Amino acid sequence: MTDPAAYLPVLQSGRWFAHLPPDFAQPLIAMAHLRQLQPGEVLFLRGDAPCGLYAVVRGAISISGTGGRAHEARAALLTRLEPPHWFGEISVFDGSARTHDAHSAEASTLLQVPHERLQAWLQAHPQHWHALALLLTDKLRTAFVAMEELALLPAPQRLARRLVMMAEGYGQWTAEGQSRRVIGISQEQLSLMLAISRQTTNQILKDLESRHLVRVQRGEVEILDLAALRATCY
User: Fold this and answer.
1) 41 with 21: CB under 8 angstroms?
2) With 39 labelled, which of 21, 126, 186, 226 sits at a CA distance of 20 to 30 A?
3) What is each CA distance from 231 to 25, 27, 157, 161, 225, in whole angstroms?
4) φ and ψ at 171, to 5 degrees?
5) Which helix (H) or strand (E) holds 17?
6) Mean pLDDT across the stretch 84-112?
7) Which residues pair with 45 in a beta bridge?
8) In this structure, what are the phi and psi dihedrals at residue 99, rounded to the nearest 5 degrees?
9) Cβ distance 93 to 132 under 8 Å?
10) How far is the C-alpha of 137 from the C-alpha of 233, rounded, in Å?
11) Would you tell me how many other CB atoms lie within 10 Å of the CB of residue 69?
12) Is the CB of residue 79 less than 8 Å from the CB of residue 194?
């Protein structure tokens, strides 16, 4: 499919886009074009100039960063974005460089709303900045929750909570109680996302498997009992 409008059913399954007023949603799609990325391909890197607002309509995008001196630099996987997530709004607001790296975790299709076109449209229709602000504040809430978990929760609870959040699409879907059964993420990616060792991640997942809450396979985690998994988070 080459027409962004063909992905409207995917976009409308997401809470943010579904609640946009038509006089913003329609121009947003009209301004967009499709981007196809191969596995591992760079979308943008930290320090890159603003390039627009994006929506994932197929595949997945990894948002990551690195820190420390060159010889001892460490990588951190912050999140994995799947349909129908929108992202890139920080640079839309402040016009500053990208804060993190974005790579395609698998073959992916994105909608890109170019930065200059979006800025010009918003200048002519300033009442719609509020809708973009809601997208930003939703991400901020999720970030605060993750910071709190890192400071207060032991690794097993943090891992279980992250699996539940991913299974529930980080609360972005419109359908009540919607969840995905299979999460496409490796043990290494989970360990990077939660700042714990690969060995600790493996031990926690084995414990969850022994309790028949998940099934771990190469590159994915299958949720067998979401309600019971959620109960282990507290």
Assistant:
1) no
2) 226
3) 37, 43, 10, 9, 10
4) 70, 20
5) helix 15-18
6) 96
7) none
8) -90, -20
9) yes
10) 24
11) 7
12) no
The two structure tokens encoding residue 57: 């309509």
Instruction: Check residue 71 and give its pLDDT.
Output: 65
For 53-75, what is the mean pLDDT?
Answer: 84
Supply 2's token pair. 């080459």
Nearest to 81 by CA among 48, 113, 58: 58
Three-point CA angle 89, 49, 59, nearest 5°: 55
- What is the pTM (predicted TM-score) of this model? 0.90
102-105-111 Cα angle (round to 5): 65
101 exposed, middle or buried (CB, 10 Å; 0-12, 13-18, 19+)?
A: buried
Whether residue 118 contacts residue 53, with contact meaning beta carbons closer than 8 Å, is answered with yes
DSSP character for 227? H
The residues with which 214 forms a beta bridge, in sequence order, are 223
Residues in CB range of 221: below 8 A, 6 or more apart: 163, 182, 183, 185, 190, 205, 214, 215
Q: What is the pLDDT of residue 94?
A: 95
- What is the SS3 string spanning 124-186? HCHHHHHHHHHHHHHHHHHHHHHHHHHHHCCHHHHHHHHHHHHHCHHHCECCCCCCCCEECCC
* Tokens (6 digits) for 13: 């399954």
Partners of 66 in beta bridges: 75
Residue 11 and residue 18: Cα distance in Å, rounded? Answer: 7
Tokens of 36: 């196809």
Sign of CA dihedral 6, 10, 13, 17: negative
Residue 119: Cβ-neighbour burial (10 angstroms; 0-12, 13-18, 19+): middle
